[in-house]
Amino acid sequence: MSTHRSQLWAGRFDGGPAEALQQLNDSFAFDRRMYVEDIQGSRAHVTMLHEVGILTAEERGQILDALDEVEEEMASGRFEATAGDEDIHTAVERRVTEIAPDAGGKIHTGRSRNDQVATDLRLWTKRELVELARLVLGLQTTLLRRADEAGDAYLPAYTHLQQAQPVTLAHHLLAHAWALSRDVERLSQTLARVDVSPLGAGALAGSSLPIDPERTADLLGFGNVFDNSLDAVSDRDFVAEALFDLSLLGVHLSRIGEELVLWSSAEFGFVSLDDAFSTGSSMMPQKKNPDIAELARGKAGRLIGHLTGFLTTLKGLPLTYNKDLQEDKEPLFDACETVRLTLLALDGMFSTLAFRSEVMAAHADNPYAAATDLAEFLVKKGVPFRTAHHIVGRLVRAALAGEGTLPDLVAAHEDLGPEAAELMTPGASVANRTTHGGGGQESTAKELERFRSSLDAARRRLG
Ligand code: ARG
Question: Which of 27, 93, 117 most suits a substitution to test ligand 1, by most atoms within 8 Å of the C-beta?
């Protein structure tokens, strides 16, 4: 059969497609990854076609058998594509019709590739987002375990990348873990909007045949069915939303990556990376590089690019289906794959790295890090905070000018004295901060329990 006659829409055409058109137009190379969903959608469709009396039981049986065979060919890599297979839908229909020539010609009854592609992509996205959310839970579980193991260890926390106040290491690790909880929540909320079946919208306006969109939605496990056929075939909000969720997740992973880059440097020395999760230099024998952390940082750019690129594609598209929409798949596939790999690598990196809590503590015990505690000591004695801030600020200034160490100056100060100087002994500052959600050991212990139950709840929700 010539390429031309095997084209689904060949009837209306005299000649075959130009090579240049085919190369730009064809999506089979990337949308074949949805073959499971495409075949699943076809099974539901022909089942429904039989139920409403459009297909005989025999025709339905022949098509279902042919679909099984095509699925097997696709899964085993034995499927042989032909030049006319412009996309996954075309390829599957072509092959089904080869296997079951008479019944196969009826598979596309009451259906268009426009509702079909939207159905496939929603099914694919549903499965993928659940899997990614589970991987996020996996990374959170690792962070929680490391936080648990960190015990009372503490480090300086930073603002402006300047040492600010000491906090427990567990509190710091959980800060990232809580941000990831919002990502899981966001993915779940997006899933609710992905979970709408567009099948039965036809090309754009439904059908004169007695098809049953509610039934196919049910068969495919969708929670909802479309309300408007025009919207059903043109809506790609779910792709944009998924790309946003993955971008923000990617931004969170990039912040974690950047911290690991800093922490593994000789200047910080807060962590040492496991060999399996570090790389070397081709020239400098002494190097051990945090490539995974850098890639976690770098991949966010690519994810944000996919989001802005796709929003730009959607912008200004008139109703309904336009071929521009074929640009939905590559960014989505790539974003999912990128996030999947990054989550797995960061999880491995966190599972295996060693925290150097003695280095962290040495930095955190810098007396200046207790300056806020000194001001709060004065507040407890009735000094207005602004005045207290000023008094301590003057002492810090004097210490920096070489008039004495800060502890000595504090001990000698009439409003502060030796009791206040105690606040600068190692570990005192962090232990003294006991408020809700704060960075001291007592608060962190409660936070760990809250996080554990919120993670358990998220796990139960995802099933
Ligand atoms: N490959 C197409 C896509 O990904 C499928 C829909 C084609 N529809 C059409 N009317 N040409 O969007």
Answer: 117
Q: Which atom of ligand 1 has the smallest separation from the CA of 203?
A: 10
Q: Of 132, 81, 38, whose CA–CA distance to 332 is shortest?
A: 132
- Centre of ligand 1 from the C-alpha of residue 316, in Å: 18
Residue type, 364: A
pLDDT (tens digit per residue) in 212-225: 999 999 999 999 99
- Exposed, middle or buried: residue 414 (CB in 10 Å: 0-12, 13-18, 19+)? exposed
Q: What is the SS3 assignment for 146-173?
A: HHHHCCCCEEEEEECCEEEEEEEHHHHH
Q: What are phi and psi of 158, to 5 degrees?
A: -120, 145
Distance CA(34)–CA(80), nearest Å, equals: 16
> pTM above the 0.90 mark?
yes
Q: Is the CB of 370 under 6 A from ligand 1?
A: no
Inform me whether the pLDDT recorded for 274 exceeds 90.
yes
Q: Give me the torsion for CA of 93, 96, 98, 102, rounded to 10°.
A: -100
- The pLDDT tens digits for 155-167 are 999 999 999 999 9
Domains of the chain with CATH codes: 3-104 (1.10.275.10), 113-362 (1.20.200.10)
